[in-house]
Amino acid sequence: MSGSFPSTAGLIVAQIRYQLLLFVRVPVGVFFTLALPLIMLVIFNALFGDVTVMTDGGEWPMRQFYTGALAVFAAVSATYTNLANMVPIRRDEGVLKRWRGTPLPTSVYVAGAVGSSVVIAAVGVVIMLGLGVVAYGLEVQADKLPAAIVTFVVGVAAFAALGMAVAALVPSASAASAVANATILPLAFVSNVFVAIQDPPRWLALIGDIFPLKPFVTSFQDAFNPLVEAPAFNWPELGFIALWGVGGAFVAVTRFRWEPSAGGTTRRRRARTPASS
Amino acid sequence: MSAINVTGLRKTYGSLVAVDDLSFEVRAGEVYALLGHNGAGKSTTIEILEGHRQRTSGEVSVLGLDPGRGGRELRDRIGIVLQTSGIEPELTIREAVGLYGSCYRRTRPIDEVVAMVGLEEKVDHRIGSLSGGQRRRIDLALGIVGRPDLVFLDEPTTGFDAAARRRSWDLVRSLCADGTTVLLTTHYLDEAEQLADRVGVMVNGSMVAEGTPDELIGAAPATVVSFVLPPDSDRGALTAALPGLGPLAAGENGRVDFRSSTPTADLHAITSWALEQGIELHSLSVHRPSLEDVFLQLSTSEQTTNGEPEDIG
Ligand SMILES: Nc1ncnc2c1ncn2[C@@H]1O[C@H](COP(=O)(O)OP(=O)(O)OP(=O)(O)O)[C@@H](O)[C@H]1O
Ligand SMILES: [Mg+2]
To answer: Is-contact B249 B256, C-beta < 8 A?
Structure first.
């Protein structure tokens, strides 16, 4: 056979670029992933920015609390929510099946989807922190940046894996968006994203503690909490998040489907239907 | 050398047997058409050969590889046009062809592919804005962008207008002029007659007939002779005068159709009789059965013998 296959690195870069192109061309996705957390930041700060908040670390300004929390929320939207929504849509459309019929290794396709969601997450976090610094006096300390970056990497990797796990398990795209939103929104309330719950009821605290969102939020916030000393690495929390990620990746790899499920109701949502089928 | 070899292929979905002891061969460079009624098992067969579905049992080889585990090497050498599959509606045609093309070892230039399927004017339009037939042509484009040795076309021209269909026939012919092997399914019998070197007819998951279009038509019982008797003439008199003709199908408005294995003699007898009687036979015609007649006959008789009659009119 003539020639050799294009390099894997080149293919992954091309896939990430293409997924990003698709992302920016779906306005509703851009709004929910990037714009909504920013709007929340502005609103929350207008409402509560000047009060202080008590957490385990002590008392600190709400605006620093919110910026870190909503940055994580943006990162989770970009990875978990985004993948759990988009991958089943592409599967229902028959796009995944088409890709599987090409010589592109399926792992490269997945790397493109996950990689692009991480890029979007990074963009969301940077915009969020930028706005925090410019508008709300957020202090970024250089000696705690490594902890912020490591927390970000571990967190988005885990939530991307969990998003792929949801994508693998749900039967159809409409079920996927219900599952993704029904899991992440309630969880965000008990995970210090929208409110810092002081002395929560035991069961609420427990729910926050057994899922990986709250550890992600608090670990990331610590990197911007003036009361926490550098380097601000929370290794036990990071390990806990990573464990969830490994579980998600296992489910995603073992249960992933490339074809629309037979009899899926949304199967033909955007796909063509030749007359004779 | 054969491009595809299928022996004793069987595929079941639960208790439903979709493909049953199917065997056939597609030679390298050949255009092979699979025909069959809806649900005959054509797509199931073709998707097993593409590696999209796992077979229940039997042997298949595609370009010398097992499609169940042919992997990247095989997928680089085949082109797939599925019966139904989606494509990212947010992309333009140029972007899609470039992107899908970029993962093959031997890629055709974007403009060449787009011209081959006749979409030059739409190349920078979003796919979501195209008509159904235009999208189907993108499926074709993506099936050939990697210069495949073997192309699977599952009802490739469904939804095409007449001009687009002719154009895609030309495309298939130009592919096989370059030595590409084509396995296609279609419900358009004229398409099979035009394109296929050989045709296989499937009924309920099994092959009931196979051969070149001419062989299949030649094996059909007979030539069809038809004409219209004037209203006042007596059909009984015709039968009585020409007992050799056997039973005549009674049609509407004096129309008579019959199958003849000795058309020359029968026609002579009929026309002599008509001349004697001073009758003019209107709409007199003699025609060879088309592939469509053969197909209808095969699939009705087979389905009936399988206890699953189907009314095909
Ligand atoms: N994924 C599936 N699960 C269960 N049954 C299936 C599945 N795919 C096909 N079948 C059944 O298998 C039989 C053969 O289907 P197939 O799609 O191969 O037919 P076909 O010859 O391609 O028909 P058509 O001309 O309508 O495309 C049908 O009875 C169909 O209902
Ligand atoms: Mg079919």
So the answer is: yes
**What SS3 class is residue A257?**
coil
* pLDDT average, residue stretch B283-291: 81
Phi, psi dihedrals of residue B272, rounded to the nearest 5°: -65, -45
Q: Are B45 and B6 in contact (CB under 8 A)?
A: yes
Give the SS3 label for residue A134: helix
Three-state DSSP at B19 gives: strand
Full domain range(s) for residue B44: 2-77+149-217
Q: In chain A, what's the furthest Cα-to-Cα distance?
A: 69
Rounded Cα–Cα distance for residues B61 and B307 (Å): 33
CA B205 to centroid of ligand 1, rounded, Å: 10
Quote the minimal CA–CA distance from B243 to chain A in Å.
45
- CA nearest A88: which of A256, A263, A272, A274? A256
What confidence score (pLDDT) does residue A53 get? 77
The span from the CA of A114 to the CA of A162, in Å, is 11
CA B221 – ligand 2 centroid, Å? 29
Query: Does residue B64 sit in the same domain as residue B192?
Result: yes
* Positions of chain A with pLDDT under 70: 1-2, 55-57, 263-277
Burial class for B161, CB neighbours closer than 10 Å (0-12, 13-18, 19+): exposed
Nearest to B139 by CA among B169, B174, B168: B168
- Structural domain that includes position A13: 9-262
A-B C-beta contacts closer than 8 Å = 107
pTM listed for this prediction:
0.85
Secondary structure (DSSP) of A67-106:
HHHHHHHHHHIIIIIHHHHHHHHHHHHTHHHHHHTSSS-H
The CATH number covering residue B178 comes to 3.40.50.300
Cβ within 8 Å of B, A 85-144 = 90, 92-95, 97-98, 100-105
Q: How far separated are the first and last CA of chain A, in Å rounded?
A: 37
Would you say residue A126 lies in a domain?
yes
Say yes or no: B41 and B66 in one domain.
yes
As for the ipTM of the complex, it is 0.85
Spatial neighbors of A66 by CB under 8 A, at least 6 apart, are: A41, A44, A45, A48, A49, A136
B73 CA to centre of ligand 2 in angstroms:
26
Q: Decide if B196 contacts B32 (C-beta within 8 A).
A: yes
Task: Residue A273: list chain B partners with CB under 8 A.
Answer: 84
β B198-203/B16-27 pair status: unpaired
CA distance B132 to B127: 10
Rg over CA atoms, chain A: 20
**Domain total in chain A:** 1
